[in-house]
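Support request, please re-run this one:
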Amino acid sequence: MTDDLRRVAPAAARNRDPILAVLRRVLPPRGTVLEVASGTGEHCAFFAAALPALDWQPSDPDAANRASADAWCAGLPNVRPALALDATAGVWPVTQADAVLCINMIHIAPWEATLGLLRGAGRVLKAGAPLVLYG
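Re-run finished. Output below.
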């Protein structure tokens, strides 16, 4: 048994570089990126290390995933503790972000989660701010 809370998703290592290439083009140079459905937290840790001028806010409805994200991101000064966020909720624990990122949720979650993501992003983003969806 181990005390390591980090979960591993093999797809994260396979797709992180192509996603990072897109993020470098579409994210603002500074500000807060809200990651919805952070899962293991591997993407957040990788992107936060590669884009240190941005503040990263991971989130996930699952407590074990939030613990994993916090473990992966430990020591990164530009990552906040993971928040409990259900995309379908009418009120999110974040009221403003400069970008919203969601990777690998839409194709596995109920349709209502996708609709909630779009509604929630509409509430927290300023006009013209990026909503980046992958998967």
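Residues 70 and 81 are 6 Å apart (CA to CA). The chain has a mean pLDDT of 97.
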